[in-house]
Design goal:
Layout: E1 3-7, H1 23-38, E2 54-58, H2 65-76, E3 79-84, H3 85-91, H4 96-110, E4 113-118, H5 120-124, H6 134-148, H7 152-155, E5 158-164, H8 172-177, E6 180-183, H9 189-200, H10 211-216, H11 223-246, H12 262-268
Parallel strand pairs: 2-5, 2-6, 3-4, 4-5
Antiparallel strand pairs: 1-3
Bound molecules: adenosine-5'-triphosphate.
Amino acid sequence: NFISAVVPPGEIGIKFDDIGALEDVKTALHELAILPMKRPELFSRGNLLRPCKGILLFGPPGTGKTLLAKALATEAGANFISITGSTLTSKWFGDAEKLTKALFSFASKLAPVIVFVDEVDSLLGARGGGFEHEATRRMRNEFMAAWDGLRSKDSQRILILGATNRPFDLDDAVIRRLPRRIYVDLPDADNRLKILKIFLAKENIEPDFDIRRLANATEGYSGSDLKNLCIAAAYRPVQELLDEEKKGKKCDTTPALRPLNLDDFIQSK
Ligand code: ATP
C-alpha cells in the first residue's frame, strides 16, 4: 500500500512526444537513462561511462516532472513504480527496514524499472535535528542503505528518479546519491506555444485563432496551469449551450458546440 502505481511499459500511454517543450530535459534523460537501459553493453566497460543510479528532477510545481518520469519509462521500455515521499512517511509507522527491503526486492524483480519518488524531499529531506520524527529518520536511512545495496548488475536496470519542488530541503547524502540533477523550468512563450499546440490539437477552434497570442498572454503559467486554462475555456461553449437550453431553446438534433475563440481563454484566466 505504499506504492501508488506499478505500470508495465506498454501501458503508461505517455511518450516524449506528448510532452510539449522541455527538449533539453528529454535529451538529458535519453543519454542518462534510456540509452543505458536499452543498450547496457555500451556502458559496461571502463569507468567513465557508467549508468547512473539516480536522477533528480527539480523545478516549480506543474512543470511536467511526473509526466517526464512516466514518458521516460515508456521510452526506456521499463516498468514504472511510483511512490510518494509524504505518503510513505505519514502512513507507515511499522518496520522501515522491512518496507524498504520489500520495495527494492520488488523493483529488482521488475527490472528494467524506473522507481519514481515524487516529493522526494519528504522522504529524504534534510535531517531535522531533534524535532524530526523518528519514523522518518529510520525510513530515510533504510532507504539509502537499500539503495546503496543494489548490486551493480541491478543498478544498470533500476533507476531511482526523484522529483521535488524544494531541492534545497534535500539532505547532502541524498544529493550525492542523485548525481544527475535536471532543472525543469517554467516554459517561456515559445515553449508555451508548443505545449498549447498539444492541448489544442484535437479541439474545435476558430480558423483564425492565433495560438501565439495566447502563448504570449500566459507569462508565468506552468504546463499544468495551461492545461487547466484550456479545460476552463473549453467549458465555456458547453455552459452557453446549457444556458440556452435552460431558456427553453431545446433543439431536436444533437446540439453543435461553437468553436473556441481567444476570448474564451482570456475570460477563463
Ligand atoms: P508537481 O511538482 O506539482 O508534482 P509536476 O512537475 O510533477 O508537478 P505534472 O504532474 O507532470 O507536473 O504536470 C501536471 C499536468 O500538467 C500533466 O498531467 C500535464 O497534463 C500538464 N503538463 C505539464 N507540463 C506539460 C508539458 N510540458 N507538456 C504537456 N503537458 C504538460
